[in-house]
Amino acid sequence: MGLIQRILGNTGKDKPGAGSASSPTPLSSAFSESQIAADEDDEEVARANRRREIVKVMLRETMRQHGIPADWIECRIIPTVGRNKRPGMHVSFVVHQAHDKLLGYVFAFQDSFHRELLRFEPQAKDWGLTVGWQFEGEPAGVQKTAMPDPKTWEAHGAPPQPVPPSIAGTPLAAAAAAPMASLDLLDSQDTEPSEDDDVQKDLAALFAIRDAVLAKDLSAA
What we know:
The chain is an alpha+beta fold and 221 residues long. The protein is built from 6 helices and 3 strands, in the order ααββααβαα. Strands 1-2-3 form a 3-stranded mixed sheet, with helices on one face.
């Protein structure tokens, strides 16, 4: 056995403390690191869900303020990642009804939504939020307007906005140039009182959540 050991070399198994340099990481330390990572992931998911709920409630509140029926527009939210690797979200306003009535107010409605969102949550400006529009389905009872001559786009300034023949000479055509606040004149439908109550309850709950988060951050600091 002595000759074999000299040929193969001493494995060091008989020496005390041998192999201690390559000893594995304690299980308690590995578990602690994995738990911290899991907690951070849970916190990120909770933060994203809270922001999604705020966006949905702010959309409903904006629609309520301008008298737009609740079933005309819905929002679809897609998580995104910016160039700086920071998470963000893309909000798509999906129009299901009254395409012709809402089309001329896209920018006005979008501005109103942003103002309402920042009024409730000033930190929303750092969310990396983008907004888009999607008009689903065919406008009922409205004749589509053909695209203008290609040379129209070469001229200076924007091309004239034609009025669809089906609404020409009607109050709707005159209302196309009215401010956003006059949307309630375009349709006599009224939202149900229960819808307003739900919005106010959601807003109150969101305010409470936001205040609790701010208080927690201040105490941690």
